[in-house]
Design a protein that fits this description.
Layout: H1 2-10, H2 14-25, H3 30-37, H4 43-82, H5 101-115, E1 119-120, E2 126-127, H6 129-132, H7 144-147, E3 152-153, H8 159-168, E4 172-174, H9 180-189, E5 195-204, E6 215-225, H10 230-245, E7 252-259, E8 262-275, E9 278-281, E10 291-301, H11 303-308, E11 317-324, H12 325-333, H13 346-352
Parallel strand pairs: 1-5
Antiparallel strand pairs: 2-4, 3-4, 5-6, 6-11, 7-8, 8-9, 8-10, 10-11
Helix pairs in contact: 1-4, 2-4, 3-4, 5-12
The structure holds phenylalanine.
Residues 177, 179, 259, 262, 297-299, 320-322 line the site of phenylalanine.
Length: 368
């Protein structure tokens, strides 16, 4: 029996080894049965056969253990041999995200204006009617409210309830521009210190086509101080646009315009030239096929707005401007459909996104 068992163990695999263990040493195994016979033997017989039977059990137990150990070692060796690393294979570079062009441009704006002494301010995207309109000299009956295609945050359901709600207090709105941050910044500054801020952020209007999305981005600029003139506004915008488009030949045209919150107001156009049949910001503005492109709205802050912000308009003046960030990004980086900005298409992001190492920015980090 010993020879048979040892031979079987010697040629068994791991599964078979367990079968043999049960067959020999299990509850009703062969070796177990022999051990049980010891109880019925005479002392002499037991003395003679005991060591043989115990020796058999030990030999089988030991053979099972050593076969198991060697099978496991073989399996491990085989795995190690199969898993060797081929150091000549190309590295598996982990997929990494990109900085969205809007984030990139916001960072560029923050950096350019930081150099001019501007801090970054923020305000809520769900605004009160007062901050979004009234404080900016857009009273309830003003036609500019209709122009803004406002999204109202409507807590009511029936027409009757809406009318009642308006009677109590106008509903909250999704801010239609970043201009309410002008008022918040003035209030926060307390009415007696100069202000220089930009306020980049999301804005909302009920509008959608290739150049309009219901959510878009603006950056607001506000300077409040004593003795501020249109000259300061023009210099600031010129300096900003030269830095942003990375060109010294930027030409500006201030076109008289109207905004309720600035007086006088000016729409600002930037000159473009034609290079290889494409419009490129910089130079021209007229002649050689070039022209003007509208980039922002601006003006001297209206006395009523200065007062609404808690400043004395006889002492303090200021200028403000507002500019579409998405439009700036499109002009600088040559994208043509605004809607792609918000589709989240990974292919588009791979093409237009920034690796984070390209340019050292706030979103991208300082790079390698
Ligand atoms: N808020 C204006 C808009 O959204 C832009 C603007 C800002 C104009 C500040 C003048 C001054 O169109």
């Amino acid at each position: 029996m010993k020879a048979d068992l040892l031979a079987a163990i010697g040629g068994a695999d791991l599964a078979r080894l367990e079968d043999i263990r049960v067959f020999a040493l299990g509850k009703s195994g062969r070796v177990t049965a022999l051990l049980k016979t010891l109880g019925g033997m005479s002392p002499e017989e037991r003395q003679a056969k005991g060591p043989v039977i115990h020796g058999l059990r030990e030999a089988v137990t030991e053979a099972l253990a050593s076969r198991k150990a060697s099978l496991e070692r073989e399996a491990l060796d085989a795995r190690l041999a199969g898993e060797t690393l081929d150091m000549t294979l190309p590295a598996d570079v982990p997929a990494s995200g990109t900085v969205h062009p809007v984030s990139q441009v916001m960072d560029e704006l923050a950096e350019i204006f930081a150099d001019l002494g501007f801090a970054v301010a923020t305000g809520p995207e769900i605004e009160t009617d007062w901050y979004n309109f009234t404080a900016l000299n857009i009273p309830e009956t003003h036609p500019a409210r209709a122009m803004h295609d406002t999204f109202y945050v409507d807590p009511t359901s029936t027409e009757r309830e809406i009318v009642d709600q308006w009677a109590k207090a106008p509903p909250m709105v999704l801010r239609t521009h970043t201009s309410p941050v002008q008022i918040r910044a003035m209030q926060a500054a307390g009415g007696d210190t100069p202000i220089r801020i930009i306020a980049p952020g999301r804005t909302y209007r009920s509008d959608s086509d290739a150049t309009h999305t219901p959510m878009f981005h603006q950056v607001e600029g506000l300077v409040i101080d004593k003795g501020i003139t249109l000259g300061h506004l023009k210099w600031t915008l010129e300096t900003f646009l030269k830095a942003f488009f990375e060109r010294d030949d930027i030409v500006l045209r201030l076109r008289p315009s109207y905004f309720p919150f600035t007086e006088p107001s000016a729409e600002v156009d930037v000159g473009y030239s034609i290079v290889n049949d494409k419009r490129v910001i910089g130079g021209s503005g007229g002649g050689n096929g070039g022209g003007w492109m509208e980039v922002l709205g601006s003006g001297m802050v209206h006395r009523k707005v200065i007062a609404a912000g808690g400043y004395d308009p006889d002492q303090w003046q200021g200028f403000a401007f507002g500019c579409g960030i998405d439009r700036l990004a499109m002009l600088k980086y040559g994208m043509d459909d605004l809607r792609a900005f918000f589709d989240g298409d990974v292919r588009w992001l791979k093409h237009y996104g920034f690796s984070g190492l390209d340019v050292p920015t706030l979103s991208g980090g300082v790079g390698a």
